[in-house]
């Protein structure tokens, strides 16, 4: 039996960050990961490879459609998808190797294999060579992540019925890709394959795409994605689907319309993810779980079992790498006796389409539903000088603030590089900042960030450039 202070089950962004923080705090730390590489879904089959392909496909699209506007003459670009995929794989490798380096630097042991929580601080790790090592840990952090939800009648084969994993690894551009689910994965990966030449049809169950975002953002996104050629069909309930050789047939119904049937050479099912508790038998351990299988935790990420913590997608809430990372830090600090606790008010959400979408805080609809008074200001990128020079004038920044105290309540952006612009607002949120704080701060000119300042001034009724 090998003893350790802290054992982290899972080496994704929640788990590996928790391990590093625990080691920084002087704990001997073991991180159990069964994949061939560290980094979990985000680094291997999620955030990082998708952003690599999003960037490559944006370049391709730019060269094909916009280079001439800039006075750059090019012949028709030729797609080398194999090279694009090699570049993606190399970027993923840089990240996974980077985590291994950080583990070495902090003296963290990577226990390669499948961990099973036996109770009372004991974890068995079954290595790929069939040997089992038993660890006894003073504290355990469960960070086992999530898995994609499938459709019962259309099992994933990752060849033609794809989750994010298969949709990131296609060797050929499909002629017709059907995407089931108009959420974050569906729109990001649908955009990649649309730009590279696929016909893309998105079937979304609810009346709008991106249902959790502010209605003004949804409206603008819907318009711009349609203009980019995404065939968005909302209010569409998929009733049946099957694969027959190289074709997949999908049947769906929209209220008030006769059922429809479409054929595709690949289908991406992106209808959400659910907590994964590999190696954690909650019933046998007496571990409390919620209705969706998520592990129940308090603000310091403690489960109901003593010395057992849980973080990241397995505890539910927003399934975001940066939320998991922060929870990992909180768990490691709580183990070290520091007064750490998680608060969720200022966690940004970003969609890496082009234009990008970024949001923090309440939507206008949520404020209305809560009967909360607010004032609102918006500023369009078409009135921003830097956006004009970039040739990227689609979108706006919208700021919602309290009419009395002026505290920021929600900020919603669609436009160029808003994944970066939102950071300023998140900081303001952390300090319960106001529209006046943002509007009164000098922003470099010309810069996209001036749109944020102007939206704050608009909420105060004194924008300069509109
Ligand atoms: P999601 O929750 O973002 O979107 C799922 C969509 O599918 C929703 O719009 C939902 O209404 C729809 N849907 C559900 N059942 C359906 C059905 N039967 N038919 C048609 N539509 C249906 O989930 P996702 O896109 O699968 O992403 C999974 C998770 O990964 C999300 O929680 C997301 O936040 C996270 N993620 C984040 C990023 C990012 O931060 N940029 C990128 C990718 C994934």
Summary tags:
single chain, about 475 residues, alpha/beta, FAD/NAD(P)-binding domain, Enolase-like, domain 1, 3 domains, seven-stranded mixed sheet, five-stranded parallel sheet, 22 strands, binds nicotinamide-adenine-dinucleotide
Explain this structure.
By secondary structure, the protein is an alpha/beta fold. It has three domains: 2-148 and 274-335, FAD/NAD(P)-binding domain; 161-271, FAD/NAD(P)-binding domain (3-Layer(bba) Sandwich), CATH 3.50.50.60; 349-459, 2-Layer Sandwich (Enolase-like, domain 1). Helices cover 32% and strands 25% of the residues. It has helices spanning 13-24, 40-45, 47-65, 81-106, 164-167, 184-195, 215-227, 282-285, 321-335, 364-369, 385-390, 418-430, 435-439, 450-459; strands at 2-9, 29-33, 109-112, 114-119, 122-126, 132-142, 146-148, 161-162, 176-180, 199-203, 231-233, 236-244, 247-254, 260-264, 266-269, 273-275, 308-310, 349-351, 356-361, 375-380, 396-401, 408-415. The strands form five sheets. Strands 1, 2, 3, 4, 5, 6 and 17 form a seven-stranded mixed beta sheet that branches. The protein has a five-stranded parallel beta sheet with strand order 8-15-9-10-11. The protein has a five-stranded antiparallel beta sheet with strand order 18-19-22-21-20, with helices on both faces. Helix 1 (13-24) packs parallel to helix 9 (321-335), helix 3 packs antiparallel against helix 4 (81-106) and helix 3 packs parallel to helix 6 (184-195). The protein is globular and about 65 Å long. The site of nicotinamide-adenine-dinucleotide has 23 residues, from helix 6 and strand 18.
């Amino acid at each position: 039996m090998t003893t350790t202070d802290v054992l982290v089950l899972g080496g994704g962004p929640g788990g590996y960050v928790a391990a590093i923080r625990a080691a920084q705090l002087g704990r001997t730390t073991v991180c159990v990961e069964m994949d061939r590489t560290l980094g979990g879904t985000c680094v291997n089959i999620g955030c990082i490879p998708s952003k690599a392909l999003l960037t490559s496909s944006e370049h391709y699209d730019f060269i094909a459609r916009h280079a001439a506007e800039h006075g750059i003459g090019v012949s028709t670009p030729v797609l080398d998808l194999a090279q694009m995929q090699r570049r993606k794989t190399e970027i993923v490798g840089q990240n996974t190797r980077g985590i291994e380096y950080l583990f070495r630097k902090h003296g963290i042991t990577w226990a390669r294999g499948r961990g099973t929580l036996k109770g009372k601080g004991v974890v068995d790790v079954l290595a790929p060579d069939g040997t089992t090592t038993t660890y006894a840990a003073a504290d355990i952090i469960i960070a086992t992540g999530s898995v994609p939800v499938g459709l019962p009648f259309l099992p994933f084969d990752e060849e033609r019925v794809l989750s994010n994993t298969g949709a990131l690894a296609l060797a050929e551009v499909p002629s017709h890709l059907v995407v089931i689910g108009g959420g974050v994965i569906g729109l990001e990966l649908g955009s990649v394959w649309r730009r590279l030449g696929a016909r893309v049809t998105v079937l979304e169950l609810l009346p709008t795409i991106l249902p959790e975002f502010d209605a003004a953002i949804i409206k603008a996104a819907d318009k711009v994605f349609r203009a980019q050629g995404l065939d968005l069909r909302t209010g569409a309930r998929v009733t049946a689907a099957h694969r027959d050789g190289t074709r997949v047939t999908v049947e769906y119904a929209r209220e008030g319309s006769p059922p429809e049937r479409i054929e595709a050479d690949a289908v991406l099912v992106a209808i959400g993810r659910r907590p994964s508790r590999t190696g954690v038998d909650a019933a046998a351990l007496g571990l409390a779980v919620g209705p969706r299988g998520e592990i129940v935790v308090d603000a310091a990420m403690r489960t109901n079992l003593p010395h057992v913590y849980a973080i990241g997608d397995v505890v539910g809430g927003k399934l975001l790498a940066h939320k998991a990372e922060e929870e990992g830090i909180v768990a490691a600090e709580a183990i070290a006796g520091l007064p750490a606790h998680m608060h969720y008010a200022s966690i940004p959400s970003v969609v890496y389409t082009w234009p990008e979408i970024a949001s923090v805080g309440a939507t206008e609809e949520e404020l209305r539903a809560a009967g909360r008074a607010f004032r609102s200001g918006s500023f369009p990128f078409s009135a921003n000088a830097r956006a004009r020079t970039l040739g990227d004038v689609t979108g706006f920044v919208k700021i919602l603030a309290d009419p009395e105290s002026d505290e920021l309540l929600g900020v919603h952006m669609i436009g160029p590089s808003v994944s970066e612009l939102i950071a300023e607002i998140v900081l303001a949120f952390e300090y319960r900042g106001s529209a006046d704080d943002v509007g009164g701060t000098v922003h470099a000119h010309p810069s996209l960030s001036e749109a944020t300042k102007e939206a704050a001034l608009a909420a105060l009724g004194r924008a300069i450039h509109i």
